[in-house]
Design a protein that fits this description.
With about 250 residues, the protein is α/β, with parallel strands linked by helices. About 30% of the residues lie in helices and about 20% in strands. The mean pLDDT is about 95. It binds NADP nicotinamide-adenine-dinucleotide phosphate.
Length: about 250
């Protein structure tokens, strides 16, 4: 069995590892945005397909038995393109999307539908900001006038002058996150609802320090995707592939 795995996430890497170990032929696809990307095991292709039509063409040229979209919950364009491309080709599609974060009783969370809405709300919550939304969407916060520490994996181009930038890749430890928040006297944290454990330490740190957190909601799933099978864990995705006919050495 051969699977195209749209990746760029820890779950996609883990899924590739398990499937390859079970004898499934996996082609992982990466957008190629980050320098020094952590590569999954198995075959890897890099770069965009050229829209939904480009992906449909790729699927015709490289027949696979299934496509798994394990991209980041905020990679809505790729998810929409995958749904459109498989509709024309008849290849089964599974979406693997980790659950979003849920506030506990001691959390002080505020929600926004977009980076622009979050930037508008931000001055009501604090004046020294820790912005952890990645490179994309950073520009929306350029004119808040608030002191901002932004953390990204790779530097945005051009490098913004309106914020202090730190480059780092998770996972992060709670003690380090608390130290960082204290060191810069941060009084509000901004994040996207990425979910997962890799970058959740900042939420625990904010809770410990009693800081408000402003969270950007996930983009809605593209129209038509309600009918596509979707799971929340790597184990469920493995089960789906095995039911499709993937062999297992276990
Ligand atoms: P996006 O906005 O949904 O996609 C933009 C375009 O990038 C797509 O139309 C496609 O180009 C290309 N692309 C995206 N993912 C691809 C993949 N896995 N393989 C081949 N091409 C891909 O995506 P994004 O939000 O920029 O994210 C890019 C990548 O980074 C994704 O793989 C995602 O899993 C990963 N990532 C994203 C975030 C985030 O916050 N957005 C966080 C962590 C990791 P064509 O139209 O030319 O095919």
């Amino acid at each position: 069995m051969k699977v195209l795995l749209l990746g760029g996430t820890g779950e996609a890497r883990e899924l590739a590892r398990v499937l390859v170990g079970a004898g499934v032929d996996v082609v992982s696809s990466l957008a190629g945005r980050t320098t020094q990307a952590r590569l999954p095991v198995g075959e890897v292709r890099t770069g965009g397909f050229g829209g939904a039509d480009g992906l449909a063409g790729w699927l015709r040229d490289h027949p696979v038995d299934a496509v798994i979209d394990a991209t980041h919950p905020f990679a809505a364009t790729m998810t929409a393109h995958a749904a459109t491309a498989v509709r024309g080709t008849g290849v089964p599609l599974l979406v693997l999307r980790r659950p979003g974060w849920t506030a506990g009783p001691d959390d002080n969370w505020h929600w926004a539908d977009s980076a622009a809405e979050a930037a508008e709300l931000l001055p009501t919550l604090g004046s020294r900001v820790f912005l952890t939304i990645g490179r994309q969407g950073l520009a929306a916060f350029a004119s808040t006038g608030l002191w901002t520490l932004a953390r990204c994996v790779d530097a945005p181009e051009p490098r913004p002058s309106w914020c202090t930038l730190i480059l780092a890749r998770g996972p992060f430890a709670v003690a380090d996150e608390i130290g960082l928040l204290r060191e810069h006297s941060i009084d509000v944290l901004v994040t996207k609802d990425s979910g997962g454990s890799q970058t959740a330490a900042k939420l625990t740190a904010a809770r410990e320090l009693d800081l408000p957190v402003l969270i950007i909601r996930r983009p809605p799933l593209p129209a038509g995707l309600e009918t596509v099978e979707s799971v929340e864990s790597v184990a469920e995705a493995v089960g789906w592939v095995m039911r499709m006919g993937g062999s297992s050495s276990d």
